[in-house]
Design goal:
The chain has 188 residues and is of the alpha+beta class. It folds into two domains: 45 residues, no CATH class; 129 residues, Rieske [2Fe-2S] iron-sulphur domain (Rieske Iron-sulfur Protein, 3-layer Sandwich), CATH 2.102.10.10. The chain is 19% helix and 23% strand. The protein is built from five helices and nine strands. Strands 1-9-8 form a three-stranded antiparallel beta sheet, with no helix packed on it. It has a three-stranded antiparallel beta sheet with strand order 2-3-4, with no helix packed on it. It has a three-stranded antiparallel beta sheet with strand order 5-6-7, with no helix packed on it. It starts with 12 loop residues before the first helix and ends with a strand. The N terminus is likely disordered. The structure holds FE2/S2 (inorganic) cluster. FE2/S2 (inorganic) cluster binds next to loops.
Length: 188
């Protein structure tokens, strides 16, 4: 009587009951969007999916509508990715920062693609405790270095996404991406 199955809390049972077949149908039906799901991704990861399923984990981003000074956020593998169109001066300034001034020393050149210094692409998750920094909108607070500002505990990133002040220990990571043309990148 004490261990009646009815006593089990079925509240969380739903996601655990998703079978491999159901999940694959979901993936096929819903395309890349499902890859962003907090539940779907670890499951897919552990299933060693076929190459065509993996291919869905990359996204194309059209850069043409992003004006100088503006940034946009796109979702890739469940993470916000910041794509920022820097001005020529911002790019030059970022490139000129001596590594000795950086907490997590990394040259700007190592964070942008050759021939495209005006585009910076970073994973938009603060490396302190995971908040989403502000700064993509021109009206957002961007901090003293003009990049991104994390309102949670005041971390400030420069226009290269490098940590300049505050508790965040490391730079915003650069995701894998490539230019497909001058106005299009593929992330992933
Ligand atoms: S999470 Fe960004 S400063 Fe703490």
């Amino acid at each position: 009587m004490a261990d009646s199955p009815a006593a089990t809390n079925t509240h969380h049972g739903h996601s655990a009951d998703v079978t491999k077949r159901d999940l694959l149908q979901l993936i096929t039906g819903a395309g890349a969007a499902i890859l962003g799901g907090a539940i779907a991704w670890p499951l897919i990861d552990s299933m060693n999916p076929a190459k065509d399923v993996l291919a869905l984990s990359s996204i194309d981003v059209d850069l043409a509508p992003i004006a100088v000074g503006q940034g946009i956020t796109v979702m890739w593998q469940g993470k916000p990715i910041f794509v920022r169109h820097r001005s020529a001066e911002e790019a030059k300034e970022a490139d000129a920062v001596p590594l000795s001034q950086l907490n997590d020393p990394q040259a700007d050149k190592a964070r942008v693609k050759p021939g495209h210094p005006e585009w910076i692409v970073v994973i938009g998750i603060c490396t302190h405790l995971g908040c989403i920094p502000l700064g993509n909108k021109t009206t957002d607070m961007r901090g003293e270095w003009g990049g991104w500002f994390c309102p949670c505990h005041g971390s400030q990133y420069d226009t290269s996404g490098r940590i300049r002040k505050g508790p965040a220990p490391t730079n915003l990571p650069v995701p894998p991406y490539a230019f497909e043309s001058n106005t299009k990148i593929k992330i992933g």
